[in-house]
Write a structure and sequence with these properties.
By secondary structure, this protein is α+β, with helices and mostly antiparallel strands. The chain contains 7 helices and 11 strands. Strands 1, 2, 3, 4, 5, 6, 7, 8 and 9 form a 9-stranded mixed β-sheet that branches. Strand 1 and strand 2 form a beta hairpin.
Length: 278
């Protein structure tokens, strides 16, 4: 064999194993379907959804509004509860069982901030000034007079311009007495034989206020206390136990411009309003 033939054989071997030229039998690399699919482009880094930003903004706005309630100042609600407890008459009302922070809704659909005290003999509905720390008004309802308790969503007459979402509780203590016709058009009338409550806006702040404003627990304790009071001091002509109804709660208000303005501006609550409080 000549030197030329040996050199030629070596050259052919180097060409076959040259790493710079891939073998024809090496399968091609698969092309990612994600890159070719236009519907999946940008999926790895999604932008925040508009709904999430709106929810965050709404939550921030609600927290800002809630901070204006004077009842949320540190120690305020505890001071108020101890304050109203001193107004309870042991002889007339008996011992205090529980205190609740609720919103009362009057016959004109106006929201009113209230402290409700359940005692052995009475239900006390207190208008309390959380700014000046004083009780301005107390309505005393003997529990043995309570006829029935209704729980349900709010409804209005057919031609009413008003509406209200959520659920409420109505405590009736004289179903035989009807308010005068003139009282329906008098926003300051006090001869209605029932009281209507719903949740206070601050119940979503923390667990403490959630328990203090829980409407269903308040309902259970009112019914239990009323049944006990009726058994101790029954009223002739009344049933032995309180009638509990799950039905819509009717608010007989039609126009309610005054209540609309008041509710929109939370005039029934002790609220910080700029440099003044109301």
């Amino acid at each position: 064999m000549s030197d030329g033939d040996a050199l030629k054989a070596v050259d052919l071997g180097e060409k076959a194993t040259n790493p710079l030229k891939p073998s024809l039998q090496t399968p091609p690399e698969p092309v990612s379907s994600v890159q070719n699919d236009p519907t999946t482009q940008g999926a790895a880094t999604p932008e925040p959804r508009l709904e999430a930003r709106e929810d965050q903004w709404s939550s921030t706005l609600n927290q800002f509004k809630l901070k204006k309630f004077f009842v949320l100042r540190p120690g305020t609600v505890d001071h108020a509860i101890e304050d109203v407890k001193t107004l309870v008459s042991q002889q007339e009302d008996g011992g205090v069982k529980s205190v609740w922070l609720l919103t009362e809704i009057d016959h004109w659909n106006t929201e009113l901030e209230r402290l409700a005290i359940i005692t052995e003999n009475c239900l006390l509905i207190c208008k309390y000034d959380f700014l000046m720390f004083k009780c301005e008004q107390i309505e005393r309802i003997p529990l043995n007079f309570v006829d029935h308790v209704s729980h349900g969503t709010f409804i209005f007459p057919q031609h009413s311009l008003l509406s209200r979402e959520g659920e409420g509780l109505r405590i009736n203590w004289d179903k035989m007495r009807k308010p005068a016709f003139s009282s329906r058009w008098n926003p300051f009338a006090k001869d209605y034989p029932y009281a209507t409550f719903t949740y206070h806006p601050v119940r979503i702040v923390n667990e403490k206020f959630a328990a203090l404003c829980e409407l269903k627990d308040f309902q259970e304790q009112v019914i239990a206390a009323a049944n006990l009071a009726r058994s101790k001091k029954p009223i002739p002509g009344k049933e032995n136990e309180v009638l509990v109804l799950n039905e819509p709660i009717l608010i007989e208000a039609y126009v309610g411009l005054m209540s609309f303005i008041g509710n929109q501006n939370k005039l029934g609550y002790c609220l910080a309003r700029g440099n003044i409080g109301f």
